[in-house]
Amino acid sequence: MGVVRNEHERMIEAPAATVGALIDRLSAADDPLFPTPAWDAMIFDGPLAVGANGGHGPVRYGVAEYEPGRRVRFDLTEPDNGFHEISVEPLGERRCRVRHVLETEPRGLDRLLWPTVVRPLHDTIIEEVLDNAERAAVGHCAHPTRWSRWVRLLNALDWDRPETVAVPEGARLLRGALDRPAYQDAYRMRMLPGLPRDPRAWSPMLREDFPELACADGELLLRVDIAGLTARASILVDDEHITLSTYARPDTRRGRLYWGFVRLGHPFMAKLMLRRTHRAFALAAPSAGERETVRAV
Description:
The chain is an alpha+beta fold. It is 31% helix and 30% strand.
């Protein structure tokens, strides 16, 4: 296939210094450009500076060159090769050009993955970076990027899976809600920028209108009693995770029979509901550029 050179650029009706200041905040906690939470955030092991290492998702790279307010170049690390770079060029006092360049030589399986998977995802993410630069600098984006059906499918397939964990210490309402539970489990996912922090907002993922028993300190406790089964569900939101936990105790013979059947599919369904809701909220969240516009007001 040889060397691939992929370029994107956008004319923005704003001073180059304004856009350059946005580039300087790449990978920061308030990064106004990288399109999170729909895509993995750009994260480094330190501030944006030459020598910082990190990347986004499975793509790894380090900061090779950095001219604050003008340009940053990232060298891809093994098994990838090449570089990608974002820069801003003034075109007058109140107009500039933002350009992103990727240069790499796909090898092995990447020769097949580049045109079918990597390039569609890369093109979408970079266009969204430019959308956010326009939103943050101007206040709106004239022509927002639209996902193709293929990109939407790839995003869904690659979405994080819930992690199985112990019931967290922070789930105090759940821990005090049921004596001697016969069953307990918990599944969590990362909290992302723009996701709701109110645990009540997450309750529709359970698909039924279960009665609320209490809500305090970022935790919502629901009664999910069914057919001789005493059960409680906890939705806990903290700074790092959203966690769905369950306590259950069969109280009757009917309840034991019911739970003996239902518990086989319970972990799968709990993780599926959490993952679907997590992704739905992420796709509906304000973009990084929109969040920056709100902060600037």
